[in-house]
Amino acid sequence: MHIEVRNLNKSFGDFHAVQDVSFEIEKGHLIGLLGPSGGGKTSILRMLAGLETPSSGDILFHGKRVNDLPPQERGIGFVFQNYALFKHMTVYENIAFGLKVKKQSKEQIRERVSTLVELTGLKGFEHRYVHQLSGGQRQRVAFARALAPEPQLLLLDEPFAAIDAKIRTELRTWLKEMIERVGITSIFVTHDQDEAIEVADEIMIIGKGKLEQKGTPWEIYKNPQTPFVASFIGESTIVEDIKVLKGFDAALNYEGTKALIRPEYIEIGKPGEIRLQSATVNATVKALHFRGSEWMVELLVDNVKLITYRSLEKEVLQPGEQVSVLVHRAYLFNDNDSWIMENSLKVDPMPIHI
């Protein structure tokens, strides 16, 4: 299903939950609606499903305006955060529920449920009740039930929120593979950026009811278009006093400019480890956090905190130790503009506007 949303708005009293949001989704794509809690993601999803009525704007499926269509006529499958399974029904009965509502024959229902049980890895669990299943198995049942009536669009509201971390990681891979096999246009809501980056073909960043940016995970991470996106995706630190960063003097010509520094922008080393000493500043190691494959290092540069990573292969640093820091690039922004600038002491200082 091809989806187009034009100037979508939703208000709850004086609260403007969704503000003038427009986007298109190509048929068969898996889209992640990503943003902080309360940002408007679920409101957008519920309007697409017909569970909420837009205050203004248009929702089009295959070019047809569906604002006034009831949910059951939109060709949508919905997977809720809490699964919403029928506890008094077996796995088979839960999956078959929508097919019975459509008054399909017993043979049609048996064939469709059998296909979905195989697809979702639930074979052997058909006669179990909900309380006899793990969280991951319940989510698979919810997924199979949503797919049973063969919808054209699948909507998932924080589908992994109620599952423990280990199973959640496994289900991410499973969900992506299942949707690719089925070939259904799908949209899922999440506030977990790792989840969105791993699962989605494209991500839409939603903040304070507005669509901040839409693109592939790599495009959004590499070229954030707003300070909100730059600060939300990945780990970063905002530096208000740019003078503490050597090699970024040109940014001082733009009034009110701040710098957002990501960990991968920073090179850290003991004396002699960094070749370009003329571009480095001195820093103090504030704290270290073991991350399994590397150390996360908190630094203080003139009382400004920066965060970076250090390989386990290198000599371990200690809190309080003095180190050299080279900031290779910075995401700069002010009230009027945003751009990425390379350190002028190591490369051409020409800013790259995005």
UniProtKB/TrEMBL annotation:
Q: Where are the transmembrane segments?
A: none
Question: What Gene Ontology terms describe what this protein does at the molecular function level?
Answer: ATP binding
User: What Pfam families is this protein classified in?
Assistant: ABC_tran (PF00005), TOBE_2 (PF08402)
**Alphabetical list of PROSITE patterns matching this protein:** ABC_TRANSPORTER_1 (PS00211), ABC_TRANSPORTER_2 (PS50893)
User: Coiled-coil intervals in this record?
Assistant: none
User: Where's the ABC transporter domain?
Assistant: 3-233
What are the protein's UniProt keywords?
Answer: ATP-binding, Nucleotide-binding, Transport
Q: What is this protein called?
A: Sulfate/thiosulfate import ATP-binding protein CysA
Give the organism the record lists.
Answer: Paenibacillus glycanilyticus
The protein's gene is named cysA
